[in-house]
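User: Last request for today: this protein with 3-methyl-2-oxobutanoic acid, please.
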Amino acid sequence: MDITRIKIFDTTLRDGEQTPGVCLEAGEKLEIAQALAKLKVDVIEAGFPIASPGDFAAVSMVAANIQGPTIAALARANKKDIDSARQALEKAESARIHTFIATSDIHLEHKLKMSRGQVLAQAQDAVRYARQFVSDVEFSAEDASRSDWDFLCQVYRAAIAAGATTINVPDTVGYTSPGEFGALIAYLRENVVNINQAVISVHCHDDLGLAVANSLAAVANGATQVECTINGLGERAGNAAMEELVMALNTRREYYRAATGIDTKQIYRASRLVSTLTGIILPPNKAVVGDNAFAHESGIHQHGIMNHALTYEIMQPESIGISHNTIVLGKHSGRHAFEERLKQLGHELDSQTVNNLFGQFKELADRKKMVFDRDIEALVNVKKTEAPE
Ligand code: KIV
Ligand code: ZN
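Assistant: Here's the final one, the structure of the complex with 3-methyl-2-oxobutanoic acid:
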C-alpha cells in the first residue's frame, strides 16, 4: 500500500503564541523549539519577526540554535515584513519565509481596501521578492475558505509561478466543514494548472471544533502539509491540535494511507512543557494528552482492559510517552479492578475477605468521587483489627 508522507508544520511559537494571555520569552521559545525538534516536526514557525523586537530576537535565537527542522518566519506580503523575516532567519540551517495576504471579499472590502487585481499582484510580488533570499517560500491566502474558489485558483497559480514552493490554504476563522474543505482541496488540485510544482498545505482554526476533522479531510483530498500547534493553542479557539492530528493518522494509517515523521513518544512530554510555559492548563478530557485520555472508570471497561487493552484503547499510552494507563477506582468500578488494586498494594486476601472489603469500598465510593490507595489501605487495616467472623 502506498503511504503518503505528511509534513508537520508546527506553529505553536507563532499562531500558538497568539492565544489570548500567552506571551513567551525567547528562552522559553527555544525550549519549546528543542522539544519540537525532538518530536521531529518538519517545520517550526518560530514567530512573526516584524511584530516586535522580542519576537525578532526569539526567531533569530531559534534559527541559530535548532538543527533538523526548517525554521519559518511569518511576513505580510510586503518588503518590510519580508526583510525582517529574512534577517531573523539569517543563521538558520534551513529557512522558510512564509508570506500571506487575504483573498476573501470580506477582507478585501473591510480590511485591505484593495481590489482582487491588486491583491493578486501584491501576492506575486511578495513571493518573487522573498525568493531572492531563500529557496523555500510558503504563500498563504488568508481566509481562503471564505474566498471565491476561482479567484483563489488564480492567486495560487500566480504565487507558484512567482516561486512559491508551498501554498497554504487557511481556514482562518474556522468556518468550513470537512466535506466542503476536502472539496476545495480537490478543486484546487484540478484547477490550478501548476499545482504539482508546490506542496499543498492547510491551516485550520477550531472555532467550531472542526480544525482536526477539516485537516484530515484535506489530507484525504491531497494536502501533504498540515499546520498545527501543541495542545491546539492559537488565535481564539486555537488551531488544529498536533497530538490529535498525528495520532489520528497513526491510529488510522491504513484508512488515510498517510503518515507523519513524528516521534509520537515525545508527544506527552512536549504537551506538558507547552502547558507549563504558556500557563494554559488542559481540560482532563482533552483528547490524547488530557489526564483522563487513558483512565478507565467503569467496571465493564476496567474488566475489558485487564483482559486485553485493545477492548477499550485504540492507542496505547506508551505510544505517546506515558508509561501506563490508569484504572480509576470509583463507584462504577468492578470487583476485578478492586482485587487487582489490592494485589498491587501487596494484599493477597481470600475471596471472602475481598468480598467484604468490596462491599465497604462500594459504600465509600458512593460518598467519595474517587477512592485513593490510602482509602483502600484504611479499609484493609480496619478489617485486620476486627474480630474474626
Ligand atoms: O489563520 C491564518 O490565516 C493564519 C495565516 C497567517 C496563515 O494564521
Ligand atoms: Zn492562523
